[in-house]
Design brief:
It catalyses: 5-phospho-beta-D-ribosylamine + glycine + ATP = N(1)-(5-phospho-beta-D-ribosyl)glycinamide + ADP + phosphate + H(+). Pathway: Purine metabolism; IMP biosynthesis via de novo pathway; N(1)-(5-phospho-D-ribosyl)glycinamide from 5-phospho-alpha-D-ribose 1-diphosphate: step 2/2. The protein is α+β, with helices and mostly antiparallel strands and 433 residues long.
């Protein structure tokens, strides 16, 4: 595969996939990029074509890749990975970057993930798994609050409740186990002890054995300023994360990442792809695993890829050829920060199809606007089509500088009831002060 030219298929339609399209289309080794199904951002790019195939239409995607001489497929979201897209593509002789179905259970089932961590003595919160509400209720009353209640399966980043009281925890458990709030994803729940500290996103390329860490990042999951309000898929992110000192990085690699990659291989489901560990860093620099994702994070991807100076195609090829130990990633010394602009009401009910204005003006401020929940209408207007609509990103000499530039771009963009946080990056900025 090395040094050949590529026709690349990117699976997904979010901000992560737009950022991947920008980075991959910039490679001199790529002749064309297809995105299935893509969004307005990818629709407006040169040398990029949106394909009207859903991310979970695995057979359709395989047939498209075969019929259109696709040489590399990069999978963005978790659902097709959990459904086995990599296995299907591999069986068809197609290069597809991501973990197979067995390895994707690290994200697809929180019970699988917690059992894996316990089995391999990787630090995480104490936990218990329930399918029966009365048993969960007894456990929650016994342990007390604060406590964390999670849907076992995939819930688009929304199946996690940080309960400050026993009643809140019981409500969350009841919503999932009795009221079916998340369908099959919530038919089994994981109840964890609450961890305090500072959250960190650690993402690495993995080839089954070797590990190539990406730049550090930190995201803001809560909907409102000061990290308050309901959990979301992420309201903004920045890179690098000052909490990731050299000492913390080495502990994370030694205590979490290397044992995870070795443990997956020992369990017979070696991991290839982007491995994301959501970590809680305590005051002593120790790391405990909050969650695993088996793909790039969103919105962390956007600021991370803005800082990546290496050709992403070279790195992905090295991972597919199991030679990640022979390459390195080069990074800009600048910081990058992205602010998510969401539809009013997110993560609850929200309206769609509002016209977005000011995108060109925002770009003129030196920002890069990554589309997520957008579509290109027949009249060529860009309209909202999801909860998280845009991620407005900028580079700067430090996080505070990148923050100021990103918000200058945000201020140019308008649609009815747009909402966003005003404090993305505040932890890093306070640390610098």
């Amino acid at each position: 595969m090395s040094e050949s030219e590529h026709r690349v298929l990117i699976v997904g339609n979010g901000g992560r996939e737009h950022a991947l399209a920008v980075k991959i289309a910039a490679s001199k080794r790529v002749t064309h990029v297809y995105v299935a199904p893509g969004n307005a951002g990818t629709a407006l790019m040169d040398a990029v074509t949106n394909i009207a195939l859903a991310a979970d239409d695995i057979d359709g995607l395989r047939d498209f890749a075969t019929d259109n001489a696709i040489t590399l497929t990069v999978v963005g979201p978790e659902a097709p990975l959990a459904a086995g897209i990599v296995d299907v593509f591999t069986q068809a002789g197609l290069a597809c970057f991501g973990p197979g179905r067995d390895a994707a259970q690290l994200e697809a089932s929180k019970a699988f993930s917690k059992d894996f961590l316990a089995r391999h003595a990787i630090p995480t919160a104490d936990y218990a798994v329930f399918t029966d509400y009365s048993e969960a209720e007894a456990h929650i009353r016994r342990v007390g609050a604060p406590i964390v209640v999670k849907a076992d399966g995939l819930a688009a980043g929304k199946g996690v409740y940080l309960a400050a009281s026993v009643d809140e925890a019981l409500d969350a458990a009841r919503d999932m186990l009795q009221d079916n709030a998340f369908g099959d994803s919530g038919a089994r729940i994981v109840v964890e002890t609450f961890l305090s500290g500072e959250e960190l996103s650690f993402i690495a390329l993995v080839d089954g054995e070797h590990i190539l860490p990406l730049a550090s990042s930190q995201d803001h999951k809560a909907a409102f300023d000061g990290d308050t309000g309901p959990n979301t898929g992420g309201m903004g992110a920045y890179s690098p994360a000052p909490v990731m000192t050299d000492a913390v990085r080495e502990r994370v690699m030694a205590e979490v990442i290397r044992p995870t990659v070795a443990g997956m291989a020992a369990d017979g489901c070696a991991f290839t792809g982007f491995l994301y560990a959501g970590l809680m860093i305590d005051d002593d620099g120790g790391a405990r695993v909050l969650e695993f994702n088996v793909r790039l994070g969103d919105p962390e991807t956007q600021p991370i890829l803005m800082r990546l100076k290496s050709d992403l195609i070279d790195l992905i090829e090295a991972a597919l050829e199991k030679r990640l130990d022979q390459v390195e990633a080069r990074w800009s010394d600048q910081a990058a920060l992205g602010v998510v602009m969401a539809a009013g009401g997110y993560p609850g009910p929200y309206d769609k199809d509002d016209i977005i204005t000011g995108l060109d003006a925002a770009t003129a401020e030196g920002t890069q606007v990554f589309h997520a929940g957008t579509r290109l209408a027949e009249d060529d207007s860009v309209r909202t089509s999801g909860g998280r609509v845009l991620c407005v990103c900028a580079l700067g000499d430090n996080v505070a500088d990148a923050q100021a530039r990103a918000y200058a771009g945000v201020d140019k963009i308008k649609w009815r009831d747009a909402m966003y946080r005003r404090d993305i990056g505040y932890r890093a900025i306070n640390r610098d002060k």
